[in-house]
Design a protein that fits this description.
The chain has seven helices and seven strands; from the N terminus they run H-H-H-E-H-E-H-E-E-H-E-H-E-E. By secondary structure, the protein is of the alpha/beta class. It has two domains: 37 residues; 192 residues, Vaccinia Virus protein VP39 (Rossmann fold). Strands 3-2-1-4-5-7-6 form a seven-stranded mixed sheet. The site of S-adenosylmethionine has 24 residues, from helix 4, strand 2 and helix 5.
Length: 248
């Protein structure tokens, strides 16, 4: 059983219930030993890291990657997939639920000078005023010093339209049926993903697409997308946490 934030007590009870079993103790010992051995190896590694931007890796071609390994950001492969998708589908308008540090908005603005980017986030001061309560685990993403720190003060900033407010009550009417691509990556709580998706469906053009982040990462996001998959043709992009809906 995988312990997630939604089944902590049940998970802990199961863990304690299993603790006396020899097979469990053996697996736990192997895991701890392996982990501490590799942690020790990593700590003492004399081999320097090659920056991902090193031209010999060729990772930046034909795109400029802006990857930073931070919790809540997209992975390097996800950056690549997103950029390829935006290019191959000729996306001209993009709406993002959840700006966070601005990693994705910045990445897109840097690579697509003509792309119209809108990105919505909840100011930290409003975390207790949302119409759907935000769970404790999600508050850390809201409670950051600034929204979009990655692009603030860069030349890309002026091509990113920052929107603020609660995604559950935001007025989307000026943007209805105007987006080629909507990225659902706001609050990961089930009710929020569901609600943001309802809005995303109204935001996309007739042939627009919706992309969700964090499938198979969060139980809540996965459960919602598994349910939605019975209603709409959804596709998971292997090696990433992206799920995609292509309307055209
Ligand atoms: C995982 S981060 C987004 C990462 C970002 N999309 C990226 O790719 O760099 C989730 C963001 O959703 C925002 N958020 C959470 N609840 C929200 C709400 N009710 N309305 C709008 N944004 C919300 C958080 O403040 C946080 O910045």
């Amino acid at each position: 059983m995988k312990i997630t934030r939604n089944n902590v007590w049940k998970g802990l009870r199961a863990l304690i219930g299993n603790a006396w079993r020899p097979s469990f103790l053996k697996a736990l010992t192997v895991h701890v030993l392996e982990y501490s051995a590799t942690a020790n190896l990593r700590r003492r590694s004399p081999v320097a890291s090659l920056p991902l931007t090193d031209p010999r890796l060729g990772l930046g071609t034909p795109f400029t990657l802006t990857y930073e390994a931070k919790k809540g950001n997209t992975s390097l492969l996800e950056e690549y997939v997103l950029l390829s998708l935006i290019r191959s589908c000729g996306v001209q308008s993009f709406f993002e639920f959840g700006t966070y540090l601005g990693q994705t908005s910045y990445l897109l603005a840097k690579n697509f000078p003509l792309l119209r980017i809108h990105t919505l986030d909840l100011p930290a001061s409003e975390v207790d005023k949302t119409s759907i309560p935000i769970s404790a685990g999600e508050r850390r993403y809201v409670e950051k010093p600034v929204i979009g720190a990655k692009f603030l003060g860069t030349p890309e900033q002026e091509r990113i339209t920052q929107l603020t407010g609660d995604s559950a009550t935001f007025d989307y009417s000026p943007f209805e049926q105007s987006m080629d691509c909507v990225f659902v990556d706001g609050c990961h709580d089930y009710d929020y993903v569901k609600n943001d998706t309802l809005h995303a469906r109204r935001l996309i053009k007739e042939k627009g697409m919706i992309l969700w982040h964090d499938y198979l990462t969060y139980e809540s996001v996965s459960r919602f997308l598994n349910e939605l998959g019975r209603e709409l043709p959804l596709y998971h992009v292997p090696g990433t946490s992206f799920v995609i809906f292509l309307r055209g």
